[in-house]
């Protein structure tokens, strides 16, 4: 509602004041319509025998019609101002609501960014742990392969030694 910050009254009180003015001018318009009708009747009444009074009544009628046009134009202008003010109130409310929504969306976006950063950190830790795990598996696998090869060599050496050794007669009674 930045448009309304500099106003001394609230927008609702401005609309209320405009409504009051419209009501007052509508009352004036009704009074002028009654005066026009009265002037017309008076002109008809004096038409045949008192032409001066009939002309005065017609002059008054013309004057009241001109005033009524001014009052009706003022009512139209006030209704336009009221519509414009209501439109601005709705626009200001929409902008205010939009600003609130924008703040919420920014906060959600910040939260989302933090979540994404945390996920990236987790991914980096997982990659680091995977690298460490691969290195440990490689080192353990290499040591296992080395010991298995040594065990196979020892087994074959043992077989060769046993085959090459002289046979010992067994003492059988």
TrEMBL record:
Coiled-coil ranges (or none): 15-95
Keyword list, A-Z: Coiled coil
Recorded superkingdom: Eukaryota
Family: Belongs to the SNF7 family.
Protein known as: Uncharacterized protein
Organism for this UniProt entry: Cichlidogyrus casuarinus
């Amino acid at each position: 509602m930045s448009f309304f910050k500099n106003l001394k009254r609230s927008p609702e009180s401005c609309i209320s004041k405009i409504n009051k003015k419209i009501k007052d001018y509508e009352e004036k318009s009704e009074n002028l319509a009654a005066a026009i009708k009265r002037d017309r009747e008076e002109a008809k009444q004096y038409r045949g025998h008192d032409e001066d009074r009939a002309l005065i009544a017609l002059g008054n009628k013309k004057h009241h019609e001109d005033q009524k046009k001014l009052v009706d134009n003022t009512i139209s202008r006030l209704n336009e101002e009221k519509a414009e003010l209501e439109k601005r109130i709705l626009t200001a409310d929409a902008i205010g609501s939009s600003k609130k929504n924008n703040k919420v969306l920014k906060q959600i976006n910040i939260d989302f960014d933090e979540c994404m950063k945390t996920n990236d950190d987790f991914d980096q830790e997982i990659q680091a742990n995977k690298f460490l795990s691969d290195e440990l598996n490689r080192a353990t696998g290499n040591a296992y392969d080395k010991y298995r090869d040594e065990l196979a060599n020892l087994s074959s050496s043992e077989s060769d030694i046993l085959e090459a050794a002289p046979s010992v007669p067994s003492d059988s009674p």
